[in-house]
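Support case: user asked for a sample of complex input and structure output to validate their parser. Sending the pair below.
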Amino acid sequence: MERAKWIESTLQRALQPQHLVVEDESALHAGHAGAASGGGHFRALIVSDAFRGLDRIARQRAVYAALGDAMRTTIHALALRTLTPDEWAAQEADSR
Amino acid sequence: MAREIMKEIHDEIAKNKVLVYMKGTPSFPMCGFSAAVVEALRDTGYPFAHVNILEDQEKREGIKAFSNWPTIPQIYVDGKFVGGCDILRELHASGELQQMLDKAFAGSGESAKA
């Protein structure tokens, strides 16, 4: 399976997000040392109730835990935005 | 004697008000995420120490276990884990990073160079 798709389906199952976007940015980092080791660069926006009551560190740890071993193998870097549905709605309203 | 990597990390975190585990150095970051963290910290005007994990494979793995965090860079302020690049960027954008460092350096005699 394509790596970004795998990340997406894994996060979908673990966090049941209302909104989820995973982008593969590996092409932007081709030739970089991390890319040479085979790990990809990804970016994810995750809007989930699972983040309610968690601080920033705990939210990212929840994402890393869901991805498990992949964080040491196929994923070299993962830029994260982790929001609750309320925070997401507020940000959307701000940007309008 | 075996190297006590966890103690080494514990001690360097305790010793430095602001410590960044990064790839490369502040002058020559070897990764965009490490570079972004250096930029944000520089913007606060306060000094910070760094550890170049590319020069120390054992510490590279050690810090991930120590922080229970799988990626580099990692930032510690006043002995406390703050997060990685995403979190530092958010804290910088919201002004919380400046507040955090103002507080960390309050009364230390060191001030922001502004």
